[in-house]
Specification:
CATH superfamily of the largest domain: Acetylglutamate kinase-like
Mean pLDDT: 88
Number of domains: 2
Shape: globular
Distance between the termini: 59 Å
Structural class: alpha/beta
CATH architecture of the largest domain: 3-Layer(aba) Sandwich
Largest sheet: 8 strands, mixed
Number of helices: 15
Low-confidence stretches: 1-12, 472-481
CATH class of the largest domain: Alpha Beta
Length: 481
């Protein structure tokens, strides 16, 4: 969207806020009631909702697809009928009889299409990424329809919009990329009339389709990306990611109980954190928001009064290190060629990785060697086999990439010194080949990842000392003394 289009929207007072609710934020009736309350609190603006599948539904759909493709149609159908019943039970708790009947007709239509797909999988015994995208789209279709009716029941004017008709992508199934021009136009055509009429559009996250209407997905966790895509298309004033944590944390609170909420974070820092394993944001989320300079907020739907984390173009935590993250299931690939590393070899290597949908986390090169860190991939044996046709290859798995993120961290030698001192007794390899000035990372055995994170967190985020009891004497008096 051009600056003039965005300005004219703001001049008309059309303050649009895109709100994405993750699976745990719609997991049960209490969660959906909280969602309704949060949306009601945003009615001073114009909300657009992006809804994930209910918690655990995506995994259950995958289980059903795999079962059907293995010939276990009965168990596959039982799984999806349980999913349907779960949505029906929520409708019983949230909706009047007439609204429940209308939703039930919509859900039954989706269920019939889902069961038909499982029959196809049982016949073909082939569950590829294209079929997987078709299957997984039903989770968001179910949940977004349910939330739309729950909002209407609460007296809001809500309208369900099928994201597959608006978000158009390439045909890279499993992790498709938007075709921006057509996506932006379709989103504006679908959403602007609803916004102008005062309706709250409700879309499923994560799901899309090709230009020919074949269902695709944006990758696991892609509902965040959906929110940013929609926000950029309609010129939103902010994008809100509603989840089950208080914001982006200094590290994973499940690993380190002393983790703290980061109040402000730059787009660049947040993107690095997502790339290196932080699970709060999808790695692709921030690109559309950065391009349109739309602030992103990470908030807790269980504690909606909290401040969360604000992510903007220019922000500073005030710390040398903003956060520490660990990316597990990392594989180290060493590719050595006696002819040296040249453009032809690099082209071949990345062609093989692209063919097997294997993303690179970190790369380094020398005169005759390419060192890569990639995510664990079931195709790794085939990747190595293909690469051995052009070079010598060795690989190690069960590794973790631990990363410190902070503005200009690579220009602060004292941070590296403290890092080395903290993990000096571990068998680590420090990797600084990345282009970002905001990261310092090292490779460690997966079994040592949590220990290294806890050690580093205690160094860079020491526990705050409790306030001293001065027996009633004021702090101002102490300072004067």
């Amino acid at each position: 969207m051009s600056g003039s289009q965005r300005q004219s929207r703001f001049e008309r007072g059309e303050d649009v806020v895109v709100m994405k609710f993750g699976g745990t934020s719609v997991e049960d009736a209490a969660a959906i009631r909280r969602l309704v309350g949060i949306v009601e609190s945003r009615l001073g603006a114009q909300p657009v909702l992006i809804i994930s599948a209910l918690a655990k539904v995506t995994d259950q759909l995958l289980e059903a697809g795999n079962a059907a493709a293995k010939g276990h149609l009965g168990s596959a159908l039982a799984i999806v009928r349980n999913i349907y019943v779960r949505h029906e039970d929520l409708a019983d708790s949230l909706l009047s009889a007439s609204a429940h009947g209308s939703l039930d007709r919509e859900l039954r239509g989706e269920l019939q299409a889902l069961e038909s797909l499982l029959h196809e999988l049982e016949t073909s015994r082939h569950f590829d990424l294209k079929a997987q995208d078709r299957l997984l789209s039903f989770g968001e279709c179910f949940s977004s329809r349910l939330v739309s009716w729950a909002l209407c029941e609460a007296g809001l004017q809500a309208a369900h919009v099928d994201a597959r008709n608006c978000v158009v992508t390439d045909a890279r199934h499993g992790q498709a990329s938007p075709l921006w021009d057509v996506t932006n136009q379709r989103l504006r055509d679908a959403l602007n009339p609803l916004l102008q009429s005062g309706s709250v559009p409700v879309l499923g996250g994560f799901i899309a389709s090709t230009i020919d209407g074949v269902p695709t997905t944006l990758g696991r966790g892609g509902s965040d990306f959906s929110a940013a895509i929609v926000g950029a298309a309609v010129g939103a004033s902010r994008v809100e990611i509603w989840t089950d944590v208080d914001g982006v944390m200094t590290t994973d609170p499940k690993v380190c109980s002393d983790a703290r909420v980061i109040r402000k974070l730059s787009f660049d820092e947040a993107a690095d954190l997502a790339h290196f394993g932080a699970k709060v944001l999808h790695p692709a989320t921030l690109a559309p928001a950065m391009r349109e300079n739309i602030p992103v907020y990470v908030l807790n739907s269980r504690h909606p009064e909290g401040h969360g984390t604000e992510i903007t173009a220019r922000a500073s935590t005030g710390n040398r290190v903003s956060a520490i993250t660990a990316k597990r299931n990392v594989v180290s690939l060493e590719i050595q060629s006696r002819r040296g590393v040249d453009a032809a070899l690099l082209n071949t290597v990345f062609g093989v990785l692209e063919q097997h949908t294997c993303a690179v986390d970190v790369m380094g090169t020398s005169i005759d060697r390419i060192s890569l860190l990639v995510g664990s991939n079931v195709a790794l044996p085939k990747i190595v086999e293909d690469l051995r046709q052009v070079a010598d290859v060795c690989w190690e798995n069960h590794k973790a990439l631990v990363c410190l993120v902070g503005e200009n961290i690579r220009r602060q030698p004292e941070v590296a010194s403290q890092l080395f001192a903290t993990v000096s007794d571990m068998d680590v390899r420090v990797l600084c080949q990345g282009a970002s000035e905001r990261t310092l990372s090292f490779l460690v055995d997966e079994s040592r990842a949590e220990e290294s994170v806890r050690r580093l967190h205690s160094v860079f985020f020491p526990k705050l000392e409790p306030a001293r009891d001065w027996g009633g004497i004021s702090s101002a008096f102490c300072e004067a003394g």
